Amino acid sequence: MRHATPIRSKATKRPHRFWHDLFASKLPHTHLIAAAGVATALVVALVAVTGDNAEAKRELPEEIEKQAVTNTDFEIPAAEVFPLTAAEETALIPEAPQLTWNEVTVRSGDSLSTLFQRATLGPRDVHEFVSSSDSAKKLQRIMPGEQLSFGLNKEGQLDTLRYRISQLESWQFVRSEQGYNAEHVALEPELLSTFREAEINSSLFVAADSAGMPHNLIMEMAGIFGWDIDFALDIRKGDRFAVLYEEKFLNGELIGTGNILAAEFTNQGKTFKAVRFEDDSGHANYYTPEGMSMRKAFKRTPVDFARVSSGFNMRRMHPITKKVKPHRGIDYAAPTGTPVYAAGDGKVVRAGYTSANGNYVVIQHGQKYQTKYLHLHKRKVKKGQTVRQGQTIGTVGSTGLATGPHLHYEFLVNGVHRNPRTVELPKAEPIDAAMKARFLAQTGPVMAELAKMQSTKQYAQANELKSTDG
Predict the structure, then answer these.
(1) What percent of the chain stands above pLDDT 70?
(2) I need a labelling partner for 433 at 20 to 30 A (CA). Which of 36, 239, 348, 390 fits?
């Protein structure tokens, strides 16, 4: 390393010239003696200091001595070193590229190409994105209501794509040299148990609204008790229900509901109870507190919350032909397009169209049972197809001899028509004996919590009534 070369100022004189000039001057003699004394004292002091420093320097290790010499050009006094402020440190960080964001909500009938087009991107961008990784192919199965955010750089190229599935789940794709790097984000909500109960005075949904219970939970509750209660025909004023369910919170904000943990429904004086149980494989189902499955071989009604326009009647006059003809099923009036579900597991033995029945489907359930679904707007299954209970097999319509949109539903036992509302259905299967102890341990506290919440609410209502009367 280059050493600093000392530069001597022109005003600096050699020591012997200093003394010569001093005594050669024409100052008075006394002044010369005084000046010489001061100069001599300064020289002695400087020699003493220089000697001390030289002695100290000789005591330093050789490595440190060399380092001190080597770094002569770069030494900065400590007092002159100032730490950077937070603003200055931030200024040193390279700025992230500024992106222009286009928010797109998936609509029915949309494809990935149409979504990219709405974000001002073309087919080439779609191909580049989809072929970049297997994760990117997930966007080929998007659903209506989901959201995509396109982040475009200054050149109008796709830099970042955010795919929001829900408040708890999303994907982010960021452009790199290899394509797009995918990141899956899954948030865990906080689950809190919530209790609601109500008495039905006009309708089930009005009662749910008064209790502050979301409609989606009413549908779920109807599904739980749907094997025992016909929610289109059996609901009466004075019926009651109580539900213990989960609410989902994210960062302290309510974002939705979770599972129904336990429920009780009193219909025409008869009380039904159900509790959720999850087995070792993670599969969940609902059972009575004693361990009998709520899920029966057949649902009482194959369509949700429809109005019964005509019941089972062996001597009914047909509204169109005006002839007395047995009505061997139940008519459920509902808007065109309402889903129709398979009442039980089985196989489609017939599916077609006739002038009287319109679009129809017939399902065989083992050797003993058969169900028929007539006047469908559309058929969703074909002959020979195996179906599961609750699977959509068609939609409500008014095809064939029909005065309006409705489902005509028939239930046959050994080839004989029976009233779907009153026919005795196969009994439910009990929980496996090996799981019974675990079932009771898991569900016992939940049912106890439901009972406790009911009694607390009833006690509060009784006290409120007493104070009002007083």
Answers:
(1) 73
(2) 390
